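fold-stage: in
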Amino acid sequence: MSGPRVNSFFLGNSSGVNFSIILSSLDEETGKLQLANCNGIKRAGDWHLTVTPGMNASKVTVSLTRTLQLCLPNGTDCCTTPLCVVETLQVLACRDSVMLAHLLIQAEIYANSSFTGNVSENATVIPNQAFQPLGSCPCDLTAAACDVRCCCDPECTPDLKQLFNKSCFTGVFGGDVNPPFDQLCSSQSMEYIPDWFPFLCVQSSLNNTPFLGYFYHGSISTPGVPPFKIALQTSPGRIFTGYRQGDPIMTEENEYFTIPQQSVAGQCVENAPVAYLQNFDVKCLTNLASYKEGLPRDVRINTGAGDFIQQNVIYRTITDTGKFITENENLHAAEVLCQNVTFAEHYMFLWKDKNIEQINVTVFLGSLCDGETLAQRFTVTFQSLKSTNATELFENPGYQVGKPVKAANMNASDTSGSLNIWQPAGRGLCTLASSTPVLFGLDSFSGCVLEVGINEDCSLLRGNVTEKLNSLIQATHVGKRSNSSYSDLNDWVEIIRLDPFNSDTVVSSGNLRGICRDIPANLNIRIIYADVGAVQGIPWQEVLAVQISYSTIIWQFQCGLICENSTSFFPITASVQFIEVPAQPPVPMTRFQINYTEFDCNRNDVCWPELFYPLTRFYTGEPYSQCLAKGLLLAFLVLLAAMMSNPWFSKLWNSSLV
């Protein structure tokens, strides 16, 4: 054993069994352990034996009762050497003087390296680090031992220092805690000393070194996981002055009001804050084992004006669970465990200006059994109290983040169009993938895969991929605003299409099978928008232009050892990028304001760093002494002109002439 405690087990019935411990020693003549008998007790020297009886086994614990601390000067009851305990123990189990079991323990225990003893009253006075260094030898890290390459370590003897005398630590870490600084007149550390250095250098002792100014008064803070809280405002008056679009909704406990939502990766986040004036409709998969309840229904919400309102909750029961149960394992009815859980939650926030006036919550409950997968649904809808139409949530005609982009097909009799991206399902095949509308302000990236054979015709493949990508854009125009009228063409912007290469102009790849050039594998949708104003503090955002382009690649069939009669997966993707630009073009900068790179005289028309270039040593047109003399003369003339332009100089000159 190497620690102060060891455990073992005695198997069998321990009733009537006497356990004892014996501190054994070697026989000087034979060199063997002395024979043990059953007359021992449960304590031997510094060792103690405890037995915890059980049904068919008893736990036997041998523990050391002495301290394992190294001795301090004049210390007692401690370890004098690092190897503190070297002893041999025997644990016996006897019944009626008959030995039933025998356990031999060899103990080699080292002293603890940490100090837990009493601190002497003669405490070391630590100097103030703001005025003098804390230690004269920072590289002395090991007590009572010589640190290699630390020449200031007092434990290092001259013989040891000879081993690393030429490799000592330098600088402050090596003991030079007061190095000469560059401002000293006697300092020669600077490679280039300017001519004015003797006029501005410092005559000071090393005890007044500027390195002491690097001392930092730190503070210790307790680490912890920050909750969804914000700091309370201590100023009098109302806590909030109203919500703005995108602000998290707060509760009475000054925490975020959270509802499960989908992340960018598609997974559900349980404690996701609800943002003001941002609707969402999500579904989260769960089962009976991982089901968790959300926030309590009695949580009061901060209206934004400093007061709080209660949620109006209505409970309903789901009778048809087929719309929510997506997977059902066939289990025997006798072993199925069911529980009443929440199937859906619908939140309706009634708002006015920057405040929340009312919250209506509809909760749908149902029975979820073990082995079933539930698709929970959570919806949040914001409705203005000034709106007469329940479907029109905002009076702001501009787009709101998270709302679908409005599209139209002006070349068809039915002008309603669509601007979509893929929503893959199952294996991710394009034949099984559905589509979802492009949401304003949210950059997206989605895709699906096509099954392609090695003998695929390049022209057919190129046409098939182009058709799949074009199926996402069933529109010729995009609405500038969310309420753009189909009858007014000025409310729409035409989609700029940069079509892929025509199949007639594609360079042939020869007779190579499984290789096709210029395949449009990615559809790029770029939407340029701007903030053109605000309605009740909510930004009014309009679409200015829409561009659609294609990224082409060289497709090559991927296969293993055998390529015949096999198919490969070809991924095609669609990306959406929203680019914000100023509503009005900025005023162009003059050539004096343009600054490509700081102090870049090669690109800027005006180079301020070269204003005093003739006075520097880099100027070689004239001797440096002449440049310096002319510079001093110029400075004198400027100073003289400034003095003569002062009114008091005129009075002094006139008085001298009188």
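fold-stage: in (second)
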Amino acid sequence: VLEDARAHGYCVYTHADWAHAYVSADGEHAYESACAFGAAPEELRGGTLYRIGPGLFEREKEYAHMLDGDGLALRFRFSSDGASVAFTSRFVRTREFAEEDAAGKVLYRGTFGTMREGGMLNNAFDLHTKNLANTNIVRWGGRVLALYEAGQPVEVDAETLATKGVDDLGGRLEPGQYFTLGLPEPIGSTIERSAGLGGRAFTAHPHIDSNTGYLVGWGWKSRITAKAVEISLWEWDEDWREMGRRDYVMEGCEAAPHDFGVTEKWYVMIQNRLGIDPLPFLVGAKGAGECLISQPQEPLLVHLIPRSTQTPNVAKPVEPVIAEGPRESFEIHVALAHDGPPLSRGETTSEDLENWVTVYTAGWDKLSPGVFLGEWGSSDPWPFPVPTELSPDFNNIPRTLLWMYEINAVTGEVKRQPAPGCEDLCIDHPHVSPLFEGKRACRYVYASLSNEVRVSGPPLGYVRIDLKTGELQKWYASNRSFCEEPVIVPKANGANEDDAWLIGLIADHSRENPAGISRVVVLDCADIAAGPVCSIPLRNRIPHGLHGMFVGRE
């Protein structure tokens, strides 16, 4: 059955293959690999694909959670003739990584439960968690930054990926752990600084707004006792000149959002309802992430925050809007946000264009009560050997859908339903063409695709979703191949939105390679169903990664 293409779309796979997703990388690499068939399209030649994800999962013993894995940065430089890529992989050698590497053991606590040896006595009241630098990698204004939402950016060399050090974004990110206890002034901040607290972390999901060409990102810190998150949003041009800033406090929020959206008028923050019980973290019993408690009985909140920069001919809102959404909801990634009703609503009025905001998100079908992400660390015993227990068991994980939110900025009404054509799908990591980020005219969303039978499962292919008609274009790699986030690259002088390329990284398993081997594929966004126009095999399997971006030749 695993070899039968007729099973595509039915969530047919084996955990014996998927279990290799979070096995540590077999070292760092630098080599050239030739195309197995086809050639890289013209728009990719001379350009660079950057990717990143967790890549090391043990020191003396296995880490507690795959999201505690140390960041592994990847660089794929396409040759000028499109016949090969030069591949480089390097661990992001933060100060904590370097110290642990020298010691050969865990010295710092991880966000999701990895601890030093010695139990609670050896971890209690140490509030410093390791900057894993494992979630996203962005190249902007001549700098390449490895990002982790519970830490500060780490700059790496654009060519070699050698680590340069922490980047505080021109002093905008204060040093220290990203929370404050709200101690009384004038001595409160002094005490917190001496304890290594009161710092500001940076989002792992900045966005490049196609309306202005600016990089938009935000720093944050948690006010633990006040149950609020303090946010500063910045916009930069390609020379890192600050073009705008907006400060905002999310009251009643105990956990910062993972992602956000940018329209011509608004920053869109979706507040998932999570509480935090800090005591187990303080006494060294749990990681900070393990102390998050799901609150499905509370309505999700949508924050519309006026942008600090002005788009020509667009009226700028003055006050923020907070609107209540559905209960039992949890949103992860934002594919697209724009002003006005959804494209599927057809022709619209100027009033509706002014009053409504639309957001497309990848989110769970249901948020259950209890410890947040508890399902990701739970699994029944398998009746066959597995290389690690860290790879999530999809039998215990909610399905991820592409949701469509409609928010009325005047009345506060929020409507949510699956995006057109997505009722049966399980997807993740949705993206749009960079030329259409933040625009209502955007018609297509591209995502990794698991199945079409309304169950949770690993990503086995790619899908193009038509937001106007619900039409789907699907391609499955195989029942034994796992597909990472798509990266979309517009074609030069393309006349249509889908004149673009999709770059994917896939791990293939087979009888010959049961542990898997990775390859880079390129698909034509106008004909996803046709499959790759180019495939470049690598020499090793790369641990299942998270995010990345493409930078064209300079």
